[in-house]
Design a protein that fits this description.
The complex is a heterodimer of chains A (about 625) and B (about 400). Chain A is mainly alpha-helical and about 625 residues long. Chain A is about 70% helix and about 5% strand. Chain A has helices at about 5-20, 25-30, 35-40, 50-65, 80-85, 90, 105-110, 125, 130-140, 150-170, 180-205, 210-230, 250-255, 255-260, 265-280, 280-300, 300-315, 320-340, 340-370, 380-400, 405-425, 440-470, 480-515, 525-545, 550-570, 585-605, 615-630; strands at about 40-45, 45-50, 70, 75, 95-100, 120-125. Chain A has a two-stranded antiparallel sheet. Chain A has a two-stranded antiparallel sheet with strand order 3-4. Chain A is elongated, with a radius of gyration of 29 Å. In chain A, about 50% of the residues are buried. Chain B is α+β, with helices and mostly antiparallel strands. Helix content of chain B is about 35%, strand content about 40%. Chain B has 6 helices and 18 strands. Chain B has helices at about 1-15, 20-50, 75-90, 95-120, 165-170, 365-390, and strands at about 55-60, 65-70, 125-130, 135-150, 160-165, 175, 180-190, 190-195, 220-225, 240-245, 250-255, 265-270, 270-300, 305-315, 320-330, 335, 340-345, 350-360. In chain B, the strands form 4 sheets. In chain B, strands 3, 4, 5, 12, 13, 14, 15, 16, 17 and 18 form a 10-stranded antiparallel β-sheet that branches. In chain B, strands 6-7-10-11 form a 4-stranded antiparallel β-sheet, with no helix packed on it. A two-stranded antiparallel ribbon of chain B has the order 1-2. In chain B, helix 2 packs antiparallel against helix 3 and helix 4 (about 95-120) runs antiparallel to helix 6. The longest helix of chain B has about 35 residues, at about 20-50. The mean pLDDT of chain B is about 85. The chains are: A mainly alpha (about 625), B alpha+beta (about 400). Chains A and B meet through helix 23 and helix 24 of A and helix 2, helix 4, strand 14, strand 17 and helix 6 of B.
Chain lengths: ~625, ~400
C-alpha cells in the first residue's frame, strides 16, 4: 500500500491536469458555440493565432487576469467578452477590465479606488471623460526615454497604451459603434454598381442619386477608418496564394468592394456573426461559424489545426497547473523531513515528475506553435530555467534520495513559473523574433546552454538555502544530509561552470558569425561572463581551501544574486543589443530578492551559539569555515 | 645571496598562489559589473576606453577634475591573471592525466585573454554608408574625423593631405611636405552645434557661443556653440576646427571646418587650386562596393522588423573579384580580412549602413574555445566517473 500511494497521487494529479484539455465550463454551457468562435484563426503581430489568444492576451495586459465580470457581476468567458468588444461595444465599455493602481493616475482620471472592481479595475465608460487628459499627460511623458520616466509617467503611458489597444479591438470587424453593420454591407452588396456610378457622377458634377452616393461614401469612409484603427488582420486571402502577408484587415478588405463590386465574403461572415451576437441568436451564430470553418478547411486546414491546438493549449493552462503541482511537491517534500518519510518522499518525487512532464509538454507545444527553439524571449527563458533546474533535481533525487533535491526543484519550478506569469502580462508570449535575434544554429544553442547554466546556478543556490535553513533548525541537519548537500552543491556548481562557460563562448561565436566580433562587452554578454567568473570563484575558493562547507554555501546563495542580475538586471539597463526584454516594474522585485538572499547569507554567518548545531560534523565544518573566512 | 633567493621565492609564491587567482577573479567580476552599469552613461565605447582597455579606472575629482585611479583596469587585472596562470603552470602544476583537463582549460583561457588583448589593440571598426546605386571604395570611422586639404589642380588626380583629429586637438602648428603652407589651429571643439549667424539677433553674443575668427569661405557666417562630448553610441560627435593657413608671404586666410559643412570650401594659392574641409576619417579599400538593392521586411500585420538586407556588388580594383553578395542580419560578408554586416538602414531614403570590422586576431577565440571545451569535458568527465564509482562503492 505504501508503495502505491505515491503512484495513486501522481495519477490523480495527472488526471486533474488532463481535465484542462476539456472545453472550459463557461463556453461549454453557452448556447453559442463560443469554443468554435474562439478557435477561428486571425493574423496579429506577425503570426496566425486563434481569437482565443487575442482575448486572453488583451485581458491579461489590460487587467492582469483573464477572468471578466459583466456589468451584472457574472463571470463571462474571455471569448464572450471579445464578442462584446467586437459587436456590442456599449456593453463591453461597462465591464471593469482596465487596471489602474497608481494613485496619481487615479487623481488624473478623477476616480477613487472605491469606484473600481477589486479597488483597481475600471470600465472604459468610467474613463471616457478623462481620455483627453490621459492623452495629454502621456504625451508629456513620451518626451522622455522610458528609463527616465518616473512611476507616474510610466503608469500613465501604460494606461494610454492599454486604452489605445482597447479601442483598436473595437474596429476589428465593424466601425466600432455597435450599429447593424450586416444590413449596411448587404445593402452595399445590392447597390454597389449604381453607388459607384452615382459617386463618379457626383464628382463630375453630373446628375446623380444624392442619397445613394452619400450612403455609399459614408460607408467608404467608415471602412477607411476601420482600416486605420484596427490592429488585427482577420480576413484570409481568397484564391490560391494563401501566404501570411496576404491577410487583410476588415476595413482593407471592405474598401476593395468599390473596385471589385463584391463585398468580401469573409468580412460579410463576421458582420453576420456580429448581428447574430447582437440579437443573441445562437442558432444563426452557430450556423455561420460551421459554414465558415467549412470554407476555411479547404485552403487553410493547416492554420485551422494550429489555431485549434493553440486554443486547447491556452485552455489547458499547463504552466498554471504545473505551478500548483510544484507547491504540492514542495509541501510533501518538506513534510517528509518531519513525518512518514517513506510515503511522503516518494510522493513528492512522483508529483515533481508529473509537474516536470507537464512543463515539458507545455514547452514542446510552444516550440511547435512557434517553430522556434525553446528560448526566444524573457518569458520562455523563465520557463526553461525552471524546466532545466527541475530536470537536474529529478536526477539528483535519484542519486541522493533525501527529499532535498525535490524541495529545491519544486521551489525553483514554482518561482520561475511565477516569474513567467508576471512576464506574460505584457502581451502575447509567442511573439515574433526581431530581425537581430532571428534564429540560427549558434544563437539557439548558446541561449539554451546559457539558460541551463542559469538553472544550475539557481539550483546550487537553492540547495545552499536548504542547507543554511536546516543547519539553523535544531536537529535539522544530520551528518548524512549535510554531506549529501555539500556534494550536491559542489557537483552542481561544476555543472553550472561548464554550461555557463560553454554557453558564453558559444554566444561569442554567434556574435562573431553575425556581427564580426567575438566579444562586445554588451550588458548581456557581461552578465553571462559574471556568472562564469562567479562559479569559477566558488570552485577555486574550494580547491584552495579558502572556503569550507559554510563558505561554499554562502557563495552559492550569492550566485542567486549574480544570476538574477545577469538575467533581469542587465535588461533593466536598457542599453545594448540584447535589451529586448526591457522592463520597469520588476526592478523592485529584484531588489527584494537580492535583500532576501543577503539575509540568508547573514543567517549562515550568525554566531554558532544562536542556533545549536546538533551533529558533530557540523560544528567541525563551521570551525574550519571560521578559519578560512575570517 | 640567500636573501635574494627568498625574495624571488616570495615572488613566485605570490604569483602562483590560488588566493591571488580568487582575488583577481573577484576584481574582474566587480570590474565587469561596474563597467556594465557605467555603459548607461558612457556607452560601450566609452566603457571600453575607460574600464577595460586601460590599466586603471580613473575618477575625476574636484573642480579641476584631477584624475585619480580608483579601481584596477582591464589590462592590469587581465595582465596579473595571465602572469598568475602562466606562473602557476610553470611552478605548481605537474603534468599528469588527472590534471590534464584543468591544464587544457587554463591554456585555452590564456589564449582567450591574449586574443582579447590582440583584439583591443588591432581591431578596427568602420561604417560603410551608401545609397542604392552608389559605389564606394572607402569606409568611414564611427568616431574619428580628419581635416583634409585636397590639391585639385590636376584634373585627373586629387592629392589628399589628411590630418587626424587628434593632431588638430593637440593644437600645435602643422607643416607637411605636400602643402606649400603651414596650418595654424585657432580653435578646436570636440563636439559643437553650428547655426547660421544671421538667424541670431544681430550685434549680440548669445551665451555659450565660441569665438570664431574665420574670414574665408562660409566660416564668417557661422556661429559655433560647443557642447559636451557624447559617449552615447547612437550619437555622433561633430567637431569644429578654425584653421589659418600661412604661406611664405603671410596669412592666406582663416577657415572654419566641420563634418557638418557638406559644401567644399575652395581657394587658390600659388597658382594651385585647393579644397579644405573636415570629414569622417576614411579608410580606402583595394575594392569597390556598390549597393544594388536594400530590403526591409516586417512581419505581416506588425511593425516588428523581420529582416534587413543589402544586395551588394564587390569589385576588386585589381580585377581579381567581381561578384554579388547578399548581406543580411546574422549573415555578414567576409572578404579580404574584413567583415561587413548589416548595421543600420533607412529604407525610406534607400540608405544602408554596413559595419566593417577588421580583426586580425579573430581566430584566437575559436582556438581557445576548442581547448577550453576539451579541457572542461575531460576534467568533469573524470570527476563524474569518480563520483559514480564512489557511490557504487
Amino acid at each position: 500500500m505504501k508503495r502505491l500511494i505515491p503512484l495513486l497521487l501522481a495519477a490523480v494529479l495527472a488526471l486533474w491536469v488532463g481535465m484542462g484539455l476539456k472545453t472550459p465550463k463557461l463556453e461549454r454551457e453557452s448556447a453559442f458555440h463560443l469554443d468554435e468562435f474562439s478557435r477561428l484563426p486571425v493574423l496579429s503581430n506577425g503570426r496566425i493565432k486563434p481569437l482565443d489568444t487575442i482575448a486572453r492576451t488583451h485581458l491579461l495586459s489590460f487587467q492582469g487576469r483573464q477572468r471578466v465580470k459583466n456589468a451584472e457581476g457574472e463571470t463571462i468567458a474571455p471569448t464572450a467578452w471579445l464578442l462584446d468588444m467586437f459587436f456590442r461595444p456599449e456593453l463591453a465599455d461597462s465591464y471593469q477590465t482596465i487596471e489602474i493602481v497608481h494613485p496619481g493616475v487615479l487623481d488624473v482620471v478623477g476616480l477613487s479606488i472605491n469606484d473600481g472592481q477589486d479597488k483597481k479595475r475600471f470600465s472604459f465608460s468610467q474613463l471616457e471623460s478623462a481620455l483627453p487628459e490621459i492623452d495629454r499627460q502621456a504625451k508629456l511623458a513620451d518626451a522622455l526615454q522610458s528609463a527616465q520616466r518616473d512611476a507616474f509617467q510610466r503608469a500613465i503611458v501604460q494606461l494610454r497604451n492599454r486604452l489605445v489597444s482597447y479601442q483598436q479591438l473595437k474596429f476589428t470587424f465593424t466601425p466600432g459603434d455597435g450599429s447593424d453593420f450586416r444590413t449596411d454591407l448587404v445593402w452595399l452588396q445590392d447597390n454597389v454598381g449604381p453607388a459607384v456610378a452615382a459617386i463618379r457622377a457626383r464628382f463630375n458634377n453630373e446628375e446623380h442619386d444624392e442619397a445613394l452616393a452619400t450612403r455609399a461614401m459614408n460607408l467608404g469612409s467608415a471602412f477607411g477608418h476601420m482600416n486605420d484603427m484596427a490592429g488585427i488582420l482577420p480576413i484570409p486571402p481568397q484564391g490560391d496564394d494563401t501566404s501570411d502577408h496576404l491577410w487583410q484587415k476588415s476595413g482593407q478588405a471592405l474598401v476593395s468592394t468599390f473596385q471589385t463590386g463584391q463585398v468580401h465574403p469573409f468580412a460579410l461572415v463576421y458582420a453576420g456573426l456580429g448581428t447574430a451576437w447582437q440579437d443573441q441568436d445562437p442558432e444563426t451564430f452557430n450556423t455561420i461559424i460551421t459554414l465558415y470553418r467549412g470554407i476555411l478547411d479547404d485552403s487553410f486546414a493547416e492554420q485551422l489545426k494550429k489555431a485549434d491546438r493553440e486554443n486547447t493549449f491556452n485552455g489547458a493552462e499547463p504552466f498554471y497547473r504545473a505551478s500548483v503541482l510544484f507547491v504540492i511537491a514542495m509541501l510533501l517534500a518538506i513534510g517528509s523531513w518531519l513525518v512518514w518519510p517513506k510515503v511522503l518522499r516518494p510522493s513528492a518525487e512522483a508529483v515533481l515528475a508529473v509537474a516536470w512532464f507537464v512543463t515539458t509538454v507545455g514547452i514542446l507545444t510552444r516550440m511547435w506553435l512557434e517553430g522556434r527553439p525553446p528560448v526566444t524571449n524573457l518569458y520562455s527563458s523563465a520557463l526553461f530555467v525552471g524546466w532545466g533546474a527541475v530536470a537536474l533535481c529529478i536526477i539528483l533525487e535519484r542519486l541522493f534520495p533525501q527529499a532535498i533535491a525535490v524541495t529545491a526543484g519544486s521551489l525553483i519550478g514554482f518561482a520561475t513559473l511565477l516569474i513567467a506569469h508576471h512576464l506574460s502580462l505584457s502581451g502575447d508570449t509567442l511573439e515574433m523574433m526581431r530581425a537581430v535575434l532571428d534564429s540560427n544554429f549558434w544563437l539557439a544553442t548558446h541561449v539554451i546552454v546559457i539558460t541551463i547554466g542559469y538553472s544550475a546556478t539557481y539550483l546550487a543556490g537553492a540547495l545552499a538555502i536548504i542547507y543554511i535553513v536546516r543547519s539553523r533548525v535544531p536537529g535539522g541537519l544530520d551528518k548524512n544530509t549535510g554531506d549529501a548537500l555539500n556534494r550536491m552543491v559542489y557537483g552542481i556548481v561544476c555543472f553550472a561552470t561548464l554550461f555557463s562557460l560553454i554557453g558564453t563562448i558559444l554566444g561569442g561565436i554567434w556574435a562573431d558569425q553575425s556581427w564580426g566580433r567575438f566579444w562586445g562587452w554588451d550588458p548581456k554578454e557581461n552578465g553571462a561572463l559574471i556568472i562564469v567568473i562567479w562559479n569559477a570563484i566558488i570552485l577555486h575558493a574550494r580547491w584552495g581551501g579558502m572556503a569550507r562547507t559554510r563558505g561554499i554555501m554562502a557563495l552559492a546563495v550569492f550566485g542567486n544574486i549574480v544570476t538574477s542580475w545577469s538575467w533581469f538586471g542587465t535588461n533593466m539597463l536598457g542599453v545594448g543589443l540584447h535589451s529586448y526584454g526591457f522592463m520597469d516594474a520588476a526592478f523592485w522585485a529584484l531588489i527584494g530578492f537580492v535583500t532576501s538572499q543577503l539575509i540568508l547569507i547573514g543567517i549562515a554567518y550568525l554566531p554558532t551559539s544562536a542556533a545549536k548545531p546538533t551533529a558533530p560534523h557540523l560544528s567541525a565544518s563551521l570551525d574550519s569555515a571560521k578559519g578560512s573566512n575570517s | 645571496m640567500s636573501s635574494e633567493v627568498t625574495v624571488s621565492q616570495a615572488f613566485i609564491k605570490f604569483f602562483t598562489s590560488l588566493k591571488l587567482t580568487v582575488v583577481l577573479l573577484v576584481l574582474s567580476m566587480l570590474l565587469v559589473f561596474i563597467a556594465t552599469i557605467a555603459q548607461v552613461q558612457l556607452g560601450i565605447h566609452g566603457v571600453l576606453d575607460r574600464y577595460f582597455r586601460t590599466f586603471f579606472v580613473m575618477a575625476f575629482v574636484g573642480e579641476n577634475r584631477i584624475p585619480l585611479p580608483w579601481f584596477p583596469g582591464g589590462y592590469l587585472i587581465g595582465g596579473f591573471l595571465l602572469i598568475n596562470l602562466i606562473a602557476s603552470h610553470l611552478y605548481r602544476f605537474k603534468i599528469t592525466w588527472k590534471k590534464a583537463g584543468i591544464q587544457l582549460t587554463h591554456f585555452g583561457l590564456i589564449v582567450l585573454l591574449v586574443g582579447e588583448l590582440v583584439t583591443g589593440i588591432l581591431q578596427e571598426e568602420f561604417a560603410l554608408t551608401f545609397n542604392e546605386g552608389e559605389t564606394k571604395s572607402y569606409s568611414e570611422a564611427f568616431r574619428d574625423n580628419e581635416v583634409v586639404i585636397i590639391d585639385t589642380t590636376d584634373a585627373d588626380e586629387d592629392v589628399v593631405t589628411a590630418i587626424p583629429e587628434s593632431v588638430i586637438a593637440d593644437g600645435d602648428p602643422i607643416q607637411h611636405g605636400a602643402l606649400p603652407f603651414r596650418v595654424l589651429i585657432h580653435g578646436y571643439y570636440a563636439n559643437a552645434d553650428l547655426t547660421m549667424r544671421n538667424s541670431l539677433p544681430a550685434d549680440s553674443t548669445p551665451p555659450g557661443m565660441a569665438p570664431n575668427i574665420a574670414n574665408q569661405g562660409i566660416g564668417p557666417r557661422i556661429a559655433v556653440f560647443p557642447k559636451r562630448y557624447s559617449y552615447d553610441d547612437n550619437d555622433r560627435n561633430l567637431p569644429v576646427a578654425i584653421l589659418e593657413l600661412v604661406g611664405t608671404e603671410g596669412s592666406i586666410g582663416t577657415w572654419l571646418v566641420s563634418p557638418m559643412l557638406p559644401m567644399p570650401q575652395t581657394f587658390e594659392y600659388a597658382g594651385r587650386s585647393f579644397r579644405i574641409g573636415m570629414r569622417f576619417t576614411r579608410e580606402y579599400k583595394p575594392f569597390a562596393m556598390k549597393l544594388i538593392e536594400l530590403k526591409h521586411d516586417v512581419y505581416p500585420g506588425s511593425q516588428i522588423p523581420k529582416n534587413f538586407s543589402s544586395r551588394v556588388h564587390v569589385t576588386a580594383l585589381d580585377g581579381s573579384e567581381d561578384r554579388e553578395a547578399l548581406i543580411y542580419m546574422n549573415h555578414p560578408l567576409r572578404y579580404q580580412g574584413y567583415t561587413f554586416y548589416q548595421f543600420q538602414m533607412d529604407s525610406a531614403n534607400g540608405m544602408s549602413r554596413l559595419q566593417v570590422v577588421r580583426n586580425p586576431g579573430y581566430m584566437m577565440p575559436y582556438i581557445a574555445t576548442i581547448l577550453m571545451t576539451l579541457g572542461l569535458l575531460l576534467q568533469f568527465g573524470i570527476h563524474l566517473v569518480k563520483f559514480t564509482q564512489r557511490r557504487t562503492a
